[in-house]
C-alpha cells in the first residue's frame, strides 16, 4: 500500500490528462485506425504511449483494441476499456474537465472505466518494476467499444488468442464471479398490425416527434415531445389546458420539465429524469417513460397511440419484464431487468424502442427471446434487430477466484464475499475471468450518472490490491 501511495501525485496528474479526452464513440469521425471515432482512438493511444514510455511491449490492433505486456509464458490478463458513455447535461463542472473536490475526481469515465484502468496500469508497472520473479506473461488489454457493441473484443479474438484467466477492474469489490447475459432488441411498429384496432374517437392531438435516450445501457435523463392540436379538435384554449395539466403532472412526479408554445397550436414538452446504469433501471427515473405516461392520458390516435401505449402501459416501471412475459431469476445473479434506453418517434419515419434486457446467467436466452417475440407481436410490434451476449459464471472454488479472495482479504482485512452483477464486463470474454473492483462495499457507484466521480484514496487502495493480484496470479 505504501508503494501505491507514493505514486499518488503522478497518478492523479496522469488521470486528469486521461479523463480530459472525450472518448465517447463518435462514428462521424471514424476511419481507418479509429473505428469508433477520433476521441476513442486518442484514449487508446494515450494508454499505449504510457506503455511505450515505460518500456513495455505494446501493440495497436487496428484501433479496435491494444495491449501492453511483459514476461513470458501462459497469459494472465487485465482487461480495461477507454470508451465512455455520453456525458449528458446538468453536470456541476464540465464532464471532460476533471475537477477534484473533497478528495473525489469528477469527470465522465472517472469510475467507468478510465480511473480504474489507469490504477490497474500503475499496478501493472509496479509489479514489473519490483523485479519479483514471474512464471507467466501479464497482458494489459485495452478495449474501445465496451459501452456499445463489444466489436473491439470480437476483433481482438480474431487477431490474438484470448487468455484463460484474469480480471477486469470495472465493477465492484470484493469479487464478481457471475454476470448476467444481455438481450438488446430494437423494436419497431409492425405495419401489418396498423389499423387492426380502430380508435373509438378521433385524435385531438398529433405526435410530431418524441426522443429520449442516447444509449441502450443508460436510463434516459431527458425527453422531448413535439405535439400539435388537430385542426378539427377545438380552439387554442385546449393548448393552455394541456400546459396546466402538464405542470400538475410534473409536480406530482417530483421532476422538472417545461412546455413551450410552438406556432399557436403546437407544444414542445420537455422532462428531466434521473440517469442510471441500464443494469439497474429502478435506480433512475426514465424521462422518456414518464413523458409518455403523461401523453398517453391525452386523446392521440393511430401509431401515435400505439407508441405511447407501449411506453406507458407496458414498459413504465416494469423493471423486471413481467408485462413482457419474460420475468425470471436465478440464485446466482437474481432477477432479469429491462431498461428502455432509446425511445424515438418521428411522424414521417415511424417509431423505435431500444431495450437493454439483462437476464440471469443460468437462463436460456433463446427461450427468453421467443417469449419476448410473442409478447411484442401481441402488442403490434416486432423485433427489427437483435443482439445478444451470454451470461458468465466462474465456480466459487476456481483457483483464480480463491487467489483474488486471498489478496482482497489480506489487503483490506474484510471478507471477500462473492458477488454477481447485472452489468457486463470484459471478464466474461475469459474462461475464468472475474470483475474485481474498483467500487468498495458501501460506496456509491456513479457509473453512467451525471457528476460521475471516483474517490482518489479508493483508486490508490485499488492500485495496491491490483498489484498484489497481478503478482499472485503470475508468480
Describe this structure in words.
- With 475 residues, this protein is α+β, with helices and mostly antiparallel strands.
- The protein has eleven helices and 24 strands.
- The strands form six sheets. The protein has an eight-stranded antiparallel sheet, with helices on one face. A six-stranded mixed sheet has the order 1-2-6-3-7-22, with helices on both faces.
- Strand 15 and strand 16 form a beta hairpin.
- Helix 10 crosses helix 11 (456-474).
Features:
single chain; alpha+beta; six-stranded mixed sheet; 31% helix; 27% strand
Broad structural category: alpha+beta
End-to-end gap: 19 Å
Please report the number of helical segments. 11
Q: What's the overall geometry?
A: elongated
Strand runs, count: 24
- Percent of residues in helices comes to 25-40%
Strand order of the largest sheet: 13-14-12-11-17-18-10-19
What is the arithmetic mean of pLDDT? 94
Unreliable runs = none
Biggest sheet layout: 8 strands, antiparallel
Gyration radius from CA atoms, angstroms: 24 Å
Q: Strand-residue fraction? A: 25-35%
Oligomer: single chain
What does this entry show, briefly?
The chain is of the alpha+beta class and 475 residues long.
Amino acid at each position: 500500500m505504501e508503494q501505491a501511495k507514493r505514486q499518488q501525485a503522478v497518478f492523479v496528474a496522469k488521470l486528469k490528462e486521461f479523463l480530459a479526452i472525450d472518448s465517447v464513440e463518435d462514428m462521424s469521425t471514424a476511419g481507418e485506425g479509429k473505428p469508433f471515432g477520433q476521441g476513442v482512438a486518442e484514449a487508446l493511444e494515450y494508454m499505449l504511449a504510457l506503455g511505450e514510455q515505460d518500456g513495455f511491449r505494446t501493440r495497436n490492433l487496428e484501433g479496435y483494441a491494444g495491449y501492453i505486456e511483459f514476461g513470458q509464458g501462459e497469459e494472465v490478463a487485465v482487461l480495461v476499456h477507454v470508451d465512455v458513455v455520453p456525458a449528458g447535461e446538468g453536470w456541476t463542472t464540465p464532464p471532460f474537465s476533471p475537477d477534484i473536490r473533497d478528495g473525489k475526481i469528477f469527470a465522465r469515465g472517472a469510475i467507468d472505466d478510465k480511473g480504474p484502468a489507469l490504477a490497474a496500469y500503475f499496478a501493472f508497472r509496479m509489479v514489473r518494476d519490483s523485479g519479483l520473479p514471474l512464471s507467466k506473461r501479464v497482458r494489459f488489454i485495452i478495449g474501445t467499444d465496451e459501452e456499445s457493441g463489444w466489436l473491439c473484443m470480437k476483433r481482438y479474438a480474431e487477431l490474438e488468442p484470448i487468455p484463460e484467466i484474469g480480471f477486469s477492474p470495472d465493477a465492484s469489490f470484493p469479487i464478481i464471479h457471475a454476470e448476467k447475459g444481455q438481450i438488446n432488441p430494437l423494436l419497431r411498429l409492425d405495419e401489418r398490425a396498423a389499423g387492426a384496432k380502430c380508435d373509438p374517437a378521433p385524435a385531438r392531438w398529433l405526435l410530431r416527434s418524441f426522443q429520449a435516450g442516447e444509449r441502450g445501457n443508460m436510463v434516459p435523463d431527458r425527453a422531448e415531445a413535439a405535439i400539435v392540436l388537430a385542426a378539427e379538435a377545438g380552439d387554442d384554449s385546449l393548448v393552455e389546458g394541456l400546459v396546466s395539466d402538464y405542470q400538475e403532472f410534473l409536480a406530482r412526479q417530483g421532476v422538472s420539465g417545461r412546455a413551450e408554445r410552438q406556432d399557436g397550436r403546437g407544444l414542445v414538452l420537455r422532462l428531466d429524469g434521473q440517469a442510471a446504469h441500464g443494469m439497474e433501471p429502478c435506480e433512475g427515473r426514465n424521462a422518456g417513460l414518464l413523458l409518455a405516461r403523461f401523453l398517453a392520458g391525452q386523446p392521440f390516435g393511430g401509431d401515435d397511440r400505439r407508441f405511447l401505449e407501449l411506453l406507458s402501459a407496458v414498459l413504465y416501471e416494469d423493471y423486471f419484464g413481467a408485462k413482457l412475459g419474460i420475468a425470471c431469476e436465478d440464485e446466482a445473479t437474481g432477477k432479469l431487468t429491462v431498461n428502455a434506453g432509446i425511445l424515438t418517434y418521428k411522424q414521417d419515419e415511424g417509431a423505435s424502442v431500444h431495450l437493454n434486457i439483462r437476464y440471469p446467467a443460468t437462463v436460456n436466452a433463446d427461450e427468453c427471446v421467443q417469449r419476448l417475440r410473442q409478447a411484442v407481436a401481441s402488442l403490434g410490434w416486432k423485433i427489427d434487430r437483435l443482439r445478444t451476449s451470454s451470461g458468465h459464471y466462474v465456480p466459487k472454488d476456481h483457483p483464480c477466484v480463491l487467489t483474488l479472495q486471498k489478496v482482497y482479504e489480506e489487503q483490506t482485512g474484510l471478507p471477500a464475499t462473492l458477488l454477481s452483477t447485472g452489468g457486463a464486463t470484459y471478464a466474461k470474454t475469459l474462461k475464468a475471468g472475474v470483475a474485481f473492483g474498483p467500487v468498495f462495499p458501501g460506496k456509491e457507484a456513479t457509473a453512467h450518472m451525471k457528476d460521475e466521480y471516483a474517490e482518489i484514496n479508493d483508486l490508490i487502495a485499488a492500485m495496491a490490491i491490483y498489484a498484489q493480484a497481478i503478482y499472485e496470479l503470475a508468480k
